[in-house]
Amino acid sequence: MPTRFAMNRVYIDALKEVGAAPVLIPLALGTDILRSLYERLDGLFMAGGGDVNPVWYGQAPHPATNGIDELRDDTELTLIRWALADGLPLLGVCRGVQTLNVAAGGTLIQDVPRQIPHALRHQWYPDKARDWVAHEIATTSGTRLADIIGGSGQVNSFHHQAVDQVAPGFRVSAVAPDGVIEAIEWTSSFAIGVQWHPESLIHTDKTMSRLFETFVKAAA
After folding, report:
1. pLDDT at position 4, please?
2. Ordered DSSP codes for the chain
3. Out of 42, 87, 204, 211, which residue is the most buried by the measure of CB atoms under 10 Å away?
4. Domain range for residue 61?
5. CA 211 to chain centre
6. With contact defined as beta carbons under 8 Å apart, do 96 and 51 qualify?
7. pLDDT under 70 in the chain at which residues?
């Protein structure tokens, strides 16, 4: 059992800058307490982190899968399923797009370098700063994400896993030049997951700040 729970400050600062009042939800609360906190939320933000246990999407762990946190998986998957059922606005980043997809019934590529030999390099940690732009993305016309950031964008990249089979009710809203899925969104209410880290780009790219602004406006 962990002795502390922590969250990177950059997520909190990005949300504060667009007018949100971020609330950190501890793990291991139990369903009743977790539900009581959830019912006070206007929106749900899912941050980056370690890998989701592949048992949740019916696979055995790949040798490269790491950083599994059972408590975090259980808490976040529960929260996401509640949010989708209620139409609560949701924004997921990096691990957040992966948990979003898994919670809704999709699967993941457990290690992009080994499972997609032609892929670009997507994991630049710790070689590059968090605001270093790694590659371009192309958004899907007619999606919420395209409306927010336009037809293309320049993004950072700090991940070795990615969305594989897209969950029912979701659509791909951005891809990298190598075809790796960079964003998905729900076709119903506001639920967007992106594979990059827009929180580290908000001071250099106004479209990344707009992504947070749109999420907070949806939750207002």
Report:
1. 86
2. --S-----HHHHHHHHHTT-------SS--HHHHHHHHTT-S-EEE---SPPPGGGGT-PPPTT-----HHHHHHHHHHHHHHHHHT--EEEETHHHHHHHHHTT--EES-HHHH-TTPPP-B-TTTS-TT---EEEEEPTTSHHHHHH-SEEEE--B-S-EE-SPPTTEEEEEE-TTS-EEEEEESSSSEEEESS-GGGTTTT-HHHHHHHHHHHHHH-
3. 211
4. 9-219
5. 13
6. no
7. 1
- Which pTM value belongs to this model? 0.97
Number of compact structural domains in the chain:
1
* Assigned domain for 105 exists: yes
Number of other residues whose CB lies within 10 A of the CB of residue 39: 10
Query: What is the domain-level CATH number for residue 19?
Result: 3.40.50.880
Axis crossing angle, helix 95-103 with helix 70-86, rounded to the nearest 10: 60
Positions marked catalytic: 94, 197, 199
pLDDT in tens, 152-177: 999 999 999 999 999 999 999 999 99
Q: With respect to residue 99, please indicate whether it lies within any of the assigned structural domains.
A: yes
